Request: fold
Amino acid sequence: MTTSKILKIHILFLVLLQLLLTGLLFRPDSNLTAFRVAYLPGEIIIARLSPYGPGFDNELVRLFCTRHKFTPVWQPVHTVQQGIDALQNNRADIFICSSARSLLSSHPDLQTGPIYRTDQPVIVHNKWKQGLLNPQDICQDELLISRGTEILKSVQTLTRTMGCMDTTVTPTGPGLDTLLTDMTENRTRFAVVSASGFNLWQPFFPDIRPSLNLHQTFGTAWSWRIERKALAASLRTFWKTVPSSPFLRDLKARYLGFLPSQTDFYELDHLLEVIDTELPLYSATIRKAAQKYGFDPLLLVAMIYQESHFDPHARSKTGVRGLLQISQTTAQELGIANRLAPKASIMGGAEYLRGLADRLASQELTTWNNLFLALAAYNQGMGHLRDALTLTEKKGRDATTWRDVKKIFPLLSYKKYYSDSTYGYCRGLEAVDYVESIRYYYYFLTGLVRLARPEGKNLARLTSGTMLSRR
Reply:
């Protein structure tokens, strides 16, 4: 063997060794440093409104990419067929599809993972037109639909059942917000949309109301090409554990768990009125408290509204008073001379909440679970929260998550449970309602700012220069 051949073999060996040591040689696909994700745009997939993270599906993709050292590259498509084409033509590595099971069964070159999120189509109507009095009403009007084959299939099934052979079905542009905007501006009577997507957008479209749930469940899953064996194996391994994991349950609780069963538009109208008329009086103090104690100012606005509706003279039956409803004992601990003084109440309430969150920090909670549990303690006291955490553990649930604690907290209002607790009877259901209401208001306020809605102009001024305004 010549010296030059030996040298080439030696160099090749060194290159292979370097690839092995850096982990590049056995990556699922050498061209997958960028992990290309085809998807139909939606608030649940990539969040525009939520303060609780980058999006439900976004976080799932990030988890997979973190495990395999990929970088996600998001590629929106306008139709399901475009997503399938992107997979088959190697322009995407996965396709997130809410109608994967029925559509992809005719594509043997593609594989679909387990359904991890379910949804249902719902008929909605414009409040300025007559609502759905009888399912036959849809035969007489144009039906807008959000893009997605499962929605169309549900509409076709419904119209066929009703005998509506001439119903006009009009697909709208990408994004549920586009459909709802068109429906509001044109005063379109009916549309069919996904229930979960509508629940997230409904607070921002008060003219659109739900009429009829069609009770036809469809599910979201990832799809990929079978022939890409290494990547397919990694995806199959990932989806063996994720559906039953706490991670997925936490995502559902964080992004969807606070939504009420019905939207109270009177309450939201009052909140909008308050942020227009009362918020400017306290904005400077709220901003100062948020900066000093490390909270989003919009969270403090949501708290103040929940506690007092911005009435500085508010007083509850338990004796707490002021904008942030501080007890006499807590006021003494914080050195507050007058609980009715707005500045003292806002600064003191924020300080108290920060203290509660810091006391919980030793439990290795996630940021959001820490905040939600601290809010529960603000409402019922740290002692009652400790009782709830203890009972949650006794019930075999995860006491480090608000998701599980909120299911157990109401039990402390029953003698069977509070008689064995350290601090006795507790209004546990009130604590749950309190936290979830604040979460909902916080979501609504954040959405107003991110959508640059004129109703949120005072909120935008409040958050100017903060992380929220730069997102």
Observations:
- The two ends are 62 Å apart (CA to CA).
- Confidence is low (pLDDT under 50) at residues 15-30.
- The domain at 31-118+220-245+252-256 is CATH 3.40.190.10 (D-Maltodextrin-Binding Protein; domain 2).
